[in-house]
Design brief:
Blueprint: H1 11-20, E1 27-31, E2 44-45, E3 55-56, E4 60-63, E5 73-81, E6 95-99, E7 111-114, E8 118-121, E9 126-129, E10 138-139, E11 150-152, H2 160-168, E12 173-177, E13 181-186, E14 191-192, E15 203-204, H3 207-217, E16 221-224, H4 232-245, E17 248-252, H5 262-270, E18 272-276, E19 280-281, E20 287-291, E21 294-299, H6 303-321, E22 331-336, E23 347-348, E24 351-356, E25 361-364, H7 374-379, E26 382-384, E27 397-402
Parallel strand pairs: 5-6, 13-16, 13-17, 14-15, 17-21, 19-23, 22-25
Antiparallel strand pairs: 1-12, 2-11, 3-10, 4-6, 4-7, 5-9, 8-9, 18-20, 20-21, 22-27, 24-25, 24-26, 26-27
Helix pairs in contact: 1-6, 3-6
The structure holds adenosine monophosphate and magnesium ion (MG).
Adenosine monophosphate binds at residues 186, 188, 190-191, 203, 205-208, 252-254, 256, 300-303, 372.
Length: 403
């Protein structure tokens, strides 16, 4: 594929091509304590019913429903049943058992009267129920899920709620995919680390920090390399090292048409390129392929472009390796509050702010929309997903990706 190739491919085609280049992701068994943001490599079924037994949803009195008709009714308090009670409790006619939330329902009872509807006389150990009970406030065995129900499938991304569900199902360990080690390499003579003093012509290197965050967000392990100067030998050395130590390589910069776009150049001459350039703006120049059998994404150097391309191209590829849909990108329908510049045939991702006017969510581009302006994506609230046919005219509706 020559550097003069004018061909840009649609995003979905690029995702399809990239997903053909698969790598195996190893698995491991870990404690649920360490499972936050990991992805299940094996589905999980419940080891118990939930709840495991009928229990009270309220603090109150366990009674026989039939005896509560025509209130008020007086009962003798037979016992107190607390959560964790291990005895076989029963109630007889004329009895009410004081019961706490989560405590097992005694045999013979089929109803709970909340404490608020009772007058307790502790001197003679009786209670007057002022209300007819309903078959309410009993949490039935297995009403949430049943033993052997498969509740979490392979590919599930473990959020805090899902980790609690694993525990509720009785699992203290889960089988998950091992995080991939992903090299993050920036390129450019002009790049200086934040914290250092900028000399003439230099800028702060920002891409690798954000890309590392995006990699962690997907549950993988970023390995941030020192920036590489625009020099083929240095670049080759770093790519060799990265392909030896890491499972995937992500570079930023040097993939456009310029004479000093060395990532593109070295990939053309010495690597394998599956595609170069996609129909999205910003972020049209990425390439994908392999360096010595290690999959490599060459992202554009412009800060907004590198972020956007990671989210729309690298993230779907990484998710596909673990059959995961997660973490999900949330989309909403927005109405453009102003004209937005589109490129015919391309997906346009402008950084917008959102405002609910009561009828629609309105999208406005507040910040300067240059692809070099990291503030536009950092401070923006969403990315428009204007399609190839959309005009971008004020009043048009489109989907937007929540940032
Ligand atoms: P390039 O793709 O190498 O032509 O870079 C495009 C623009 O992005 C240039 O203005 C670079 O200075 C800038 N740039 C490249 N890499 C980075 C980076 N890691 N952090 C911030 N800006 C960058
Ligand atoms: Mg450059």
């Amino acid at each position: 594929m020559g550097s003069g190739t004018p061909y840009f491919i649609p995003l979905n085609e690029a995702i399809e091509i990239s997903c053909k280049r698969k790598i195996k992701v190893e698995t491991e068994i870990i404690s649920i304590d360490n499972s936050f943001q990991r992805t299940l490599s094996k589905s999980i079924s419940a080891l118990t019913n939930d709840p495991p037994f009928d229990n009270s949803a309220m603090d109150g009195f366990a009674v026989k429903y039939q005896e509560t008709i025509d209130p008020p009714n007086k009962f003798s308090i037979s016992k107190t049943i607390e959560a964790g009670n291990k005895f076989d409790n029963t109630i007889k006619t004329g009895e009410a058992a004081r019961i706490m939330t989560g405590a097992p329902i005694p045999e013979g009872a089929d109803s709970i009267i909340p404490i608020e509807s009772c007058d307790v006389n502790s001197e003679n150990n009786t209670v007057i129920l002022n209300q007819e009970s309903k078959p309410h406030f009993i949490r039935k065995k297995g009403e949430n899920f049943l033993e052997n129900d498969v509740l979490l499938e392979t590919g599930t991304f473990l959020t805090p709620e899902k980790i609690s569900l694993c525990a509720a199902m009785g699992h203290n360990k889960v089988e998950v995919f091992r995080p991939l080690k992903i090299a993050v390499i920036s390129t450019g003579d002009e790049l200086k680390l934040p914290g250092e003093t900028l000399e003439k012509g230099e800028i702060y290197e920002s891409n690798t920090f954000g890309l590392s965050g995006l990699i962690s967000w997907l549950g993988h392990e970023p390995v941030r390399f020192s920036s590489v100067v625009d020099n083929l030998d240095e670049l080759r050395k770093t790519l060799d090292l990265a392909s030896k130590d890491c499972d995937v390589i992500i570079t930023s910069g040097g993939v456009s048409m310029g004479d000093r776009d060395f990532v593109r150049k070295i990939m053309e001459d010495e690597g394998e390129i599956d595609f170069w350039r996609i129909k999205v703006r910003p972020g049209s120049p990425p390439l994908f392929g392999a360096w010595k059998n290690t999959p490599i994404f060459g992202l554009p150097g412009n800060p907004v472009s590198s972020h956007v391309v990671f989210r729309i191209l690298c993230a779907p590829w990484l998710r596909s390796l673990t059959s995961s849909q997660h973490p999900k990108e949330s989309q909403i329908r927005v109405k453009l509050e102003q004209d937005i510049k589109t490129v015919p045939g391309f997906i346009t991702l402008r950084r917008v702010h959102l405002f609910d006017d009561g009828n629609d969510i309105l999208a406005t581009a507040k910040h300067h929309q240059g692809s070099g302006n990291i503030a536009s994506i950092a401070l923006g609230e969403a990315l428009t997903l204007l399609g190839p046919e959309d005009s971008g005219k004020k009043g048009e509706y489109c989907n937007a990706l929540i940032l």
